[in-house]
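User: Teach me something about this protein's shape.
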Amino acid sequence: MLLKKVGGILDKRYFTIGMAGHIDHGKTSLTKALTNVDTDRLKEEKERQISIELGFAPLYEDEEIQISVIDVPGHERFIRQMIAGVAGIDLVVLVVAADEGVMPQTEEHLDILGFLGIRNGIVAITKIDRVEQEFIELVKEDIFEELAGTVFEDAPYVLVDSLSGKGIEDLKDLIIHTLKQQEMRDIRGAFRLPIDQVFTVKGQGTVVRGTVYEGTVEEGQPLKLMPKSVDVRARQLQVHHQPAKRAFAGQRAAINLSGVAKEDIERGDVLVSSEHFIVTRTIDVAIRVAPDLEHIVKQRMPIKCHIGTAEVMGRIVFFDRNELKEENGEILCQLRLDEEIVTKRNDRFIIRRPSPQETIGGGWVIDPHGEKYRYGNDTIEELEKKKAGTPKDRIIAALAEAKALPVFELMKRTALDETTLDSELSNPEFILFNGKDYTLQSLVHQLEEEVYDRLSDFHQAQPMKAGINKAELLQTIDKAVPKQLGEYVIEQGTANGAFGRRDQFVFLADFSPHVPPNWQKRTENLMEELKKDGLKVRYFQDYVSNAGIPDHLVGDLKHHLENEGLIVPLDDQYYWYGDHFHHAVEKLKQNTGASFEVGDAKDVLDLSRKYMIPFLERLDAAGFTKRDENRRIWL
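Assistant: First, the predicted structure itself:
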């Protein structure tokens, strides 16, 4: 098998297998026979270093694979440890004693394995030296009959005896061969480790244990303890009693933490490397019910939810029924929990009745960011859409509704993990703008079309105006569109040559302000008359009236002629023909020194004060001159 290199580190695959089965069917003895480790002999009070939790032992390791074993003797611990992650358990060895066959606890374990989505299994028929061969054949028939319709229906089986060693190597070889065919775990995503034990080691401080659910952790790495949001650091790591620089998805790890006391951590807390993991108390779920449910499950009934390593009380909320007894298919509903948990889409869980104790069923998280919904088919239809949608579909739906969202909000709305989201967002259908928000390429195109149409309509209605003020244009875009997205659309349209910008105005790139054709001739007459009068002009309104231009066009016409430099205002009454104004400036400059007074200007231009004073003030305003008491200085 070819191994990949990532960041210079040779990838290795890490797996943890679990032992399941009825009490006293030989799980611990089988673990010892496979690993040469007695998982019952390790006692907490004897520990002097960071070490792997009781019940865990190394099974096999070579250059491409490492396998650990969980031996969980008690039923309650079995549930908690199995849920310590589907990512924490990759294969289950179902242990059935040859002298007893399938027992009630075996059946319940099978149900739980199915709810947790575990599909990879091997049946180990133990204690074969205690019975005759004929009896073994009867037990095998009984087992295959009981396993029909379960996740172990087609599982291979091995006959073993832990004391004599019969079949042990065969079982070990089968485990190794099966896992070597299994797909590599994703160690590149954000790190997550649900904590199942916390204690202190003298001289080292707080230590937590758990199975690395996903990602990678390194010695010295800053982490976050969730849901409390406490900043911590991984001071030291150990895997199977050995110091390690890194721990990977699928491994059992003990982590010595700095920045937090033992009293501030509890089972069910989660160590993560990213703040993007969702903390929630309301999760939309798809569940399946145990086949032999003894009691009716009623609307809003108290339940205990086992998810990650957390055990949280809560209530189950249905949207299409008020009670549940038997159901073969998936039921879409919601769990409203009493405490916050850290979870994401596809995480598996078990729900149990607190009293009388009973496994109700289990399933997977559709959306960790559940909200309050109305009872009825509309809600069920929405949950169906959430359940069925591909990652891409869910991102598109979220952005179509919100128009633009940052990554953290997208994670909440789509129930996608950071790694999946990053991969999907690399698709050109999604656009990152302003450095933090994503939107749809199709939405940007749609908004560009809206802006284009708005500008086109504006130019047609107001051909003499330079364009629309940007702030005003942004207000005309769909009010649901964030302002920064509107600005991005205008920037992109300008960059690709569809729009133009001048100061605060936006216009179509191929547009030039112009006088409407039906008023073109009259405007030309106005300009000819203004030009003919030189510097001794009349009120501008006189020229407008003489040209027959209606009052409602005067404002736009003046602005247009000013913007084009065809006329220059002296004040709000007098306007000069543009060329005349510039000739006057040049003539005055050539016939005065570095500075001049009003009288000097009158002599040069032969103008009365009613023109001269506004003209000189215009020179000041335009930056040609600066007034210093009675003199003006050329700039």
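Now, about its shape. The chain has a mean pLDDT of 86. The first strand starts at residue 5 and ends at 6. If you'd like, I can walk through any region in more detail.
User: That's plenty for now, thanks!
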